[in-house]
Amino acid sequence: MTGTANETKGVDRTPRTARGTRTREKILRAAESVFAQLGYTEASIVRITEEAGVGQGTFYLYFESKLQVFEETVEDLNRRVRHAMSTAAAKGRNRIEAERLGFEGFFAFTAEHPALYRIIREAEFVSPRALKLHYSRIVDGYVDGLTKARDAGEIDTDPTVAAWALMGIGEMLGMRWVLWGDRADSGDVGPLAGETSQMPTEVLDEMMRFIQRGLGSRGAAAPDDREDQP
Q: Which Pfam family, an example, fits this chain (predicted)?
C-alpha cells in the first residue's frame, strides 16, 4: 500500500460524483472515530478503512496519507462546530444573547462530538498548522461580531482580546461540565470520558454573568430576560 500512496501523491483527489463525495465523507467520519478512540499514533489507515467499510485503495483515492486525513478531520470538525455556533448565535437580538446562544450551540456540538477535544489537542503535536487554523478561524468570526457590537455601543472591550478569552472560557467550561460531567471528581475521564452531558443551566447562567461584566455590556444574559420565541 505504500507504493499506492507514493504513486498517487500529488493527484487531484476531489470527488467527481455524489457517490464519491459520500464515500469521502464516510472516511472522514471513520477517521474522527478512530483518532478519538486510539489517538493519532495508534490509529492506522487500516483501522480507518475498516471503520468506514472501504478498501485501502479507496482511501488513497481521496487522501494522500494518515496525516492528511487527520488534518482534514480537524478542518471538518472546525467547519461543523463553527456552523453550529454561528447558526445558534444568529438568533440573538443583541451581542450578549448571541454569545449565550452561540455557547449553547458549541456545548451541544461537544456533547454530540466529544472527539473534538482529543483530536484538537493532539493537533498541537501532530499538526501545529492545523491547530492554529482551527483556533484562528473561530477567532476571526468572533472578532468580526464583537467589533460590530463595540461600534454599536453594545460592549466596551478590545474585540481581539475578548475573542480569545471567550474561546478559552467556552473550551474549558465545556471540558469540565460537558465532556467530564459528573465524572470530573471520579478520575474516570479518559479520551472521551464515557457519556457526555449537557451544560447545566446554572453554570451557563453564571458563565454569562461573568462574560457580560467582562464585555462591559448591559445586555440580557439570562434566558429569563428574553421574550418568548414563537
A: TetR_N
